[in-house]
Amino acid sequence: MPRGDKDSYTDKQKRKAEHIEEGYEDRGVPKDEAERRAWATVNKETGGGRKTSTGRRHANARLEERSAEHQKRSDAARKGWETRRRGSA
């Protein structure tokens, strides 16, 4: 894909970029700079164009992983609290 080719973006991303670009132009930003800023904003918010699922983990796996990490922190906090409570008595 050549640089600047927007074929890999969804219709929603293209509409969003157009709307952002119009907003910049209304504020007096030159057209080419407005377009550059609009696509930079879309890329930042959505992570770029369409992505294939190859090599990507499912959202479910990430959620389960976060839950396990949270449980570890909760266990550590509980253990720390009990240690402090015993030490102050």
Features:
0% strand, elongated, mainly alpha, 89 residues
Describe the structure.
- There is one protein chain.
- The protein is mostly helical.
- It has 2 domains: 9-48; 59-89.
- It contains 3 helices and no strands.
- Helix 1 (11-26) crosses helix 2.
- It starts with 10 loop residues before the first helix and ends with a helix.
Summarize the structure.
By secondary structure, this protein is an all-alpha fold. It has helices at 11-26, 31-46, 59-88. The relative contact order is 0.09.
What is the radius of gyration computed over CA atoms, rounded to a whole number of angstroms? 23 Å
Average pLDDT confidence is 81
For the record, the count of structural domains works out to: 2
- Provide the β-strand percentage band: under 5%
**In sequence order, what are the helices and strands, one letter per element?**
HHH
From the spread of the alpha carbons, the general shape counts as elongated
- End-to-end separation in angstroms reads 68 Å
Helicity, in percent? 55-70%
SS-based class: mainly alpha
Provide the low-confidence segments as ranges. none
Question: Which secondary structure elements does this structure contain, and how are they paired or packed?
Answer:
Layout: H1 11-26, H2 31-46, H3 59-88
Helix pairs in contact: 1-2
